[in-house]
Specification:
- It is a single chain.
- The protein is globular.
- About 70% of the residues lie in helices and about 0% in strands.
- The longest helix has about 45 residues.
- Helix 5 runs antiparallel to helix 10.
- It is mainly α.
Length: about 450
Amino acid sequence: MAFHFENLLRGLGGLLFLVFICYLFSVNRRAINWRVVFIGIAAQIGFGIGVLSGGKYNFFRIILEFFSNAFVKLIKLSHSGTEFMFGNLADSNLSWGYVFAVQVLPNIIFFAALSAILYYLGVLQKVVFVFAWLLSKLRITGPESVSTAANIFLGQTEAPLMIRPFLEKMNRSEILCIMVGGMANTAGSVLAAYVGMLGGNDVDMQKYFALHMLSQSIMSAPAAIVCSKLLFPQEKDYHVNTHIEIPKQKLGDNFLDALSIGTTDGLKLAVNVGAMLVAFIALMKVLNYILFKVGDWTHINGSIVALNPDLYASPNVKPEDKGLTLQFILGYVFAPVAWLIGIDKVNMVPVGQLLGIKTIINEFVAYQQFAELKKQGLLNAKSILMATYALSGFANFSSIGIQIGGISQLAPNQRKNLTELGVMSLLGGTIACLMCSCIAGMLF
């Protein structure tokens, strides 16, 4: 990837804008530890340079590529179970093409089962400990480090299980850090689904998206800490205990029990994702149909097409999308944010609509729309890279309810804090994802 000075300036401007937003909504600006902020952002930039810079001897990128290629290989191997279950329907090269329910959803089941096995064997805990130790250098408490590190691999309600004994005694700043960490990241099982959605049958594209999604998962950990500590810093006289302890949690009585638990959890998640996509995409179509008819009656549709002749000139754009739609409205609402983080002017409306869909609906629907825009050729290479980072996270309104319900089951006394910090955690998680995207665009 070529380096451009303009990208650097726009990226730095975007980072300053995102930090300013957090500072603006901070509950105690005087207590902000700017050392944590600067080190956290420097860690993200350093990691981004390691991933995005080329060179034959860039061992950092070589290592990450090894893991991302292994991830793609696992996706391919997992299709053997899909082929056994669905037969020729699993072959996307035949006349019916790429079937989402067959090609993507089984990946969630497989990786959920694999995560359960790694947890049972203690492998996942050791990897989490290493990342937690690195994050503890940002001067956050041990439980905060462990939960944020666990979010790299686990979901927003699974990661807090690793610090269950400490949850009840955590203060509001620590609770927000846990929540933002969950909002800013995704689980490994759904990461496989995103790779499948964007990469399709192209192995090289799968490797590309796997590399950058794994990169985002790691970069979002310090980003989440930076955002949470800007929004709700620890009191200056608070003693920060950085000691890291991962309590022993039992997952199943034996290997097979752990495998069955993981498989069952994966099945529930896959069914939930499939049902959610069916409902939300259908409802979007209904809403778009109504908006398009209103646009026809009021002659707004013609004005919209005239406003964006280049965007709607593509033969890949469907006729029902050439006018007043939910995507059009969200695109213009979130376009300034897209531009401020470094998206090129020509792509700020389509990327803005993706940011809006992710925040208001969820990231799965956003990725489905992202795949459609990519297929239509409406996004350039830089925008595709930045959107990959920006959309990879659970930061949406429904996640507030998921976290309140999930974490309050582990620590009932924290329910009031969880409900009061919900919107703030959404803001922090969204900005953390945008930070990662901003840095990716800066180094493009």
